[in-house]
Design a protein that fits this description.
about 775 residues, alpha+beta, Ubiquitin-like (UB roll), 13 helices
C-alpha cells in the first residue's frame, strides 16, 4: 500500500512539474503515466478523426512508438495538429503503453461564395482569399480574408467597403461560407495641393503626377484612386520633372494623404523644396582604362556648357559612353558622372569618369509583383541576362523600356548580393495596371456622309503576353460601315522584331452616284535600328469595288465611269518606312520630333503600277513651361510616278481635312472641270506646312485635360496623270491654299477629341470648303 502511495505521489509530481495545460481555441491536453519510466509508448490511439483519418493525425505527431519522448515533444505535436487548421480541440494523454490523441474536428468548408460584389468579379476575389472549398473553417483565416477583400477594393478606390460573413450549416460538420460585400461609394480625391513651389504653379505640377482630383468622369479614368505605390510614383515624377529642368537640389520635404471618413475622400499634400536652378558648367570626359581615349568619347556627350542642367541628358550621355566602351571590349568599365556645383553662378560642371569597375556578373534576374504580365515579357526588355557582365546603364535603359510599355503603374529595379562576391541579383519590382480600353469616336463629314461613329476595343497587353490587339467597327448616316482588326507580336520568335497585320473592310456611298467597297490587308514587320529610329516593311493588298447600279452614268465623270466599268480593282504593293521618334510623351508631347519617310512600289500583280515617295515630320517645343504652352511646326510632301502613261484615280495622292484644315476631304487639287460633275482626281505631288500653339484653357482645372489651340495651315496638291478622256481638268497647277483657325482639344476617357474651326485665306474657286472639323485628334 505504501509503495502504491509513493507511486501516485510520483505521478502527481510529474504532472504538476510538466504543467501541461494548452491555451487558446478552447484547447487543452493532459498527460497521464502509469510508470515512472513511461517515456516510451508502443502504440498511438487516435479518437475523433472521422473525416481527417487516423493516419493524417499520426503523421503530424513528433512522437513515435518505441522512441523516447518528452513534454516538449507533446507541446510540438499539439501545436502541429492545430496548425493544420483541421481541428478545433486537441488532447493528448498516456494510457498504459498507448498515446491517446483525442481531437475535435473543425468545420469543413463545403463552398465559398461572394454576394453583393459588382465592381470586382468572383474569380478575382477568390484569388485573394485563402479560405477555399474542402478546406477547414478558421476564424483567424476568415478575418484575414476579410481584410484582403477590403484591400482589393481599396486598390480600385473604394475604402468604404464593408465585408461580413454568413455561415450555413449542412450537417456532419460541413458548412457553406458566404462573404457578403457592401461595396459603398467610390473614395474620391477632393484636392491635391503643393506647397513650397515658386518656379512652377500648382496647376503645372498637377499635370506632372498621375493621380488626379475627382471629377464627373473619374469613374472612367480611375485616375483618382489613391494608393501608397501611386504616391511614391508621383513623388518620383516630380523629382524627374525638376531634375530635368535645372533644379538639381530639388527634394520632397514630405507628402501626405489625409483621409476624411465623413466625406470618404483623400486630400493629398506635397511639400517641396525647389532649390536653385542650374546650368551646365564645364563638361569633360576622363578615362583611367588603358586603351580608352577620352577625347574620342567627347562626341557622345549630350550635355553642353551653358545648357540648362538635365539629369536625363546626363543619363543619356552615360549610356552612350558605356555602350561605346563595352563594344570596344571593356564590359566591366564603369561610367560615373561627377558634379561640381558653383553656387556663385549656379552652374554644375560634369566630369564623366570612365574607370575599370568591379568584375561582377548577374547571377539571376528576379521578377516580383507581376500578377498578370508574363515573366518573359519583362525579361526581354533587358539587353543582358543571367551570366552577363553587370552594367548599370543597361539596367537603367531596361527600366525606361519597361515604363514605356504602359503595362505597369510602377517599375523599380534594385540589386542584391549574390551567392559569391562577384555575383549580383537584379530584382525587378513591378505593379501591373489595366491596359485595355474601350473607345467611342465621332466625326462629321460633309458631302452627304453626315455623322460618323466608331467604336473600338483595344488591349495593349493581350493575355499578359505583351501582344497588341484592336477591334474597330463604325458606321455613318448614309449607311456606310467599316470593320477592322489589328494584331502585333512585338517580339517575333524572341527577337526585337514587331510583326503584325491590319485587316479592314469598309462600304461607303459617294453622293448617291456609286457605292464603294474596300478590303485591305497589310502584313508588317518593324525592326529597331537605334533607340529612336526604326524601319518598317509592309506588304499591302487592297481590293476596290465600284457599283453604280440604280444611278445614271451621266452623274459620273469619264475617269469614274472607267472605274465602275472595270470594277473590281486590285492594288498589290510593298513599302518601307523609316520612323524617327524622340517625343517625350505620345499622348501630349511637349518636346521632340516625330518623322517618317515612306517609299512604296506597286506592281506585284494587280492593276496599279507606280513608285511613291512621301514623308512627314512634326517638331514640338515647350514655349512657356509653367503656362504649359506647346508649340509645334509640321511639314509633309509626296510624289508618285507611274510606270505607264497613266495612273488610276485611286493611285494619286489626296489630302484630307486634317492636312489643310478648312477644306473638305479631297477638297483641293485637280478635279474634272467645266461644271458638273466635278469629281476629284487627286494629284501626283503635294506639300503641306502647319504651325500650331496649344495651351490649357483658363477657368478649367488642368486635370480635366481641356486645351485650346491656334493654328495656320498651308499647302498644295497638283499634277495629274489620270486619263481624263478629253475632259477639262481644274487645279493641275501648284496653287497655294492656306487657312487659319482655332481648335479645342479634350483628352477625354474616350481618346483625344478635337474640334477645329478654320477659315481659308487662300483658295481656288473650285475648292470645297469645310469650316468645322470634329473627330479623334491625331497629330502624327
Amino acid at each position: 500500500m505504501k509503495a502504491g502511495s509513493r507511486f501516485l505521489n510520483a505521478v502527481s509530481a510529474v504532472a504538476l512539474s510538466a504543467g501541461l495545460v494548452a491555451t487558446g481555441a478552447s484547447a487543452a491536453f493532459l498527460v497521464s503515466v502509469t510508470s515512472a519510466e513511461a517515456a516510451v509508448i508502443q502504440k498511438i490511439d487516435v479518437r475523433g478523426a472521422s473525416r481527417v483519418g487516423d493516419e493524417a493525425v499520426r503523421s503530424n505527431l513528433t512522437i513515435q512508438p518505441g522512441k523516447n519522448f518528452s513534454n516538449a515533444d507533446i507541446d510540438d505535436s499539439v501545436k502541429q495538429l492545430y496548425d493544420t487548421g483541421y481541428f478545433s480541440d486537441v488532447k493528448i494523454s498516456v494510457s498504459g503503453r498507448a498515446l491517446v490523441v483525442t481531437v475535435q474536428e473543425a468545420k469543413l468548408i463545403n463552398q465559398v461564395v461572394f454576394n453583393g460584389n459588382r465592381k470586382i468579379k468572383d474569380d478575382k476575389l477568390a484569388a485573394v482569399v485563402k479560405t477555399h472549398a474542402a478546406g477547414p473553417y478558421s476564424d483567424a483565416q476568415i478575418q484575414a480574408d476579410i481584410q484582403s477583400i477590403k484591400d482589393a477594393y481599396a486598390a480600385i478606390g473604394r475604402n468604404e467597403v464593408s465585408v461580413k460573413t454568413q455561415v450555413v450549416p449542412l450537417g456532419e460538420g460541413r458548412v457553406n461560407l458566404a462573404f457578403v460585400v457592401d461595396e459603398g461609394d467610390r473614395t474620391k480625391i477632393s484636392s491635391i495641393t503643393f506647397s513650397g513651389n515658386k518656379a512652377y504653379s500648382s496647376g503645372r505640377l498637377s499635370a506632372v503626377i498621375s493621380t488626379k482630383r475627382s471629377n464627373f468622369l473619374s469613374f472612367l479614368t480611375r485616375k483618382d484612386v489613391y494608393n501608397e505605390d501611386k504616391l511614391r510614383a508621383d513623388e518620383e515624377a516630380l523629382r524627374q520633372f525638376y531634375f530635368n529642368r535645372g533644379y538639381a537640389d530639388f527634394k520632397i520635404v514630405s507628402s501626405d494623404a489625409s483621409f476624411d471618413e465623413s466625406k470618404n475622400a483623400y486630400t493629398l499634400t506635397f511639400n517641396i523644396d525647389e532649390g536653385p536652378r542650374y546650368d551646365f558648367g564645364d563638361v569633360t570626359v576622363q578615362s583611367t582604362v588603358p586603351g580608352i581615349n577620352a577625347d574620342e568619347l567627347k562626341g557622345l556627350v549630350a550635355t553642353h556648357q551653358g545648357d540648362v542642367y538635365s539629369a536625363k541628358q546626363v543619363q543619356k550621355s552615360m549610356e552612350a559612353i558605356s555602350d561605346k566602351v563595352a563594344s570596344a571590349g571593356y564590359p566591366f568599365a564603369r561610367v560615373t558622372p561627377r558634379g561640381n556645383r558653383n553656387l556663385g553662378n549656379n552652374t554644375i560642371g560634369v566630369e564623366y569618369l570612365v574607370d575599370q569597375g568591379e568584375r561582377a556578373y548577374i547571377e539571376r534576374i528576379e521578377i516580383r509583383g507581376n500578377s498578370r504580365t508574363r515573366d518573359y515579357v519583362i525579361r526581354r526588355e533587358f539587353d543582358l541576362s543571367e551570366g552577363d557582365a553587370f552594367n548599370q546603364q543597361m539596367i537603367s535603359r531596361a527600366k525606361r523600356r519597361l515604363e514605356a510599355l504602359g503595362y505597369f503603374s510602377s517599375v523599380n529595379i534594385t540589386t542584391q548580393p549574390g551567392s559569391a562576391p562577384d555575383r549580383i541579383v537584379v530584382v525587378v519590382d513591378v505593379t501591373d495596371q489595366p491596359t485595355g480600353s474601350f473607345g467611342i469616336g465621332a466625326g462629321y463629314a460633309a458631302g452627304g456622309d453626315g455623322l460618323l461613329l466608331e467604336a473600338s476595343i483595344e488591349e495593349k497587353n493581350f493575355l499578359g503576353r505583351g501582344q497588341y490587339i484592336k477591334v474597330t467597327a463604325g458606321g455613318g448616316q448614309d449607311g456606310s460601315r467599316s470593320y477592322g482588326l489589328s494584331f502585333t507580336e512585338p517580339y517575333f520568335l524572341g527577337y526585337r522584331l514587331a510583326v503584325g497585320f491590319d485587316a479592314n473592310h469598309s462600304e461607303t456611298s459617294s453622293n448617291d452616284n456609286y457605292d464603294y467597297e474596300e478590303n485591305n490587308l497589310i502584313l508588317r514587320a518593324t525592326a529597331p535600328i537605334t533607340e529612336d529610329l526604326a524601319a518598317t516593311f509592309r506588304y499591302n493588298f487592297k481590293q476596290m469595288k465600284y457599283d453604280s447600279s440604280g444611278s445614271s452614268f451621266a452623274d459620273l465623270s469619264a475617269p469614274y465611269q472607267n472605274l465602275v466599268n472595270n470594277s473590281p480593282w486590285i492594288r498589290s504593293s510593298i513599302s518601307q518606312t523609316l520612323t524617327y521618334n524622340t517625343l517625350d510623351d505620345m499622348t501630349l508631347p511637349r518636346e521632340g520630333i516625330y518623322a517618317s519617310l515612306t517609299q512604296e512600289i506597286a506592281g506585284l500583280g494587280g492593276d496599279s503600277k507606280y513608285y511613291k515617295l512621301y514623308g512627314k515630320a512634326r517638331y514640338f517645343h515647350l514655349l512657356a513651361d509653367d503656362a504649359d504652352i506647346i508649340g509645334s511646326v509640321a511639314g509633309s510632301a509626296g510624289y508618285v510616278a507611274g510606270f505607264g502613261s497613266h495612273l488610276n484615280v485611286f493611285d494619286q495622292f489626296t489630302l484630307t481635312n486634317a492636312d489643310i484644315r478648312g477644306f473638305e476631304n479631297r477638297g483641293i487639287g485637280p478635279r474634272i472641270g467645266g461644271g458638273s460633275p466635278d469629281d476629284p482626281l487627286g494629284g501626283t505631288t503635294y506639300f503641306t506646312v502647319s504651325a500650331e500653339a496649344s495651351f490649357p484653357l483658363p477657368l478649367f482645372p488642368r486635370d480635366f485635360g481641356l486645351r485650346g489651340a491656334v493654328f495656320a495651315d498651308a499647302g498644295t496638291l497638283f499634277g495629274n496623270k489620270v486619263n481624263t478622256f478629253g475632259q477639262q481638268v481644274d487645279g493641275s497647277d501648284a496653287a497655294l491654299r492656306a487657312s487659319v483657325g482655332l481648335g479645342l482639344v479634350w483628352n477625354s476617357p474616350f481618346g483625344a477629341l478635337r474640334v477645329d474651326y478654320a477659315v481659308p485665306v487662300a483658295k481656288e474657286d473650285y475648292d470645297k470648303v469645310q469650316n468645322f472639323r470634329f473627330g479623334i485628334n491625331n497629330q502624327f
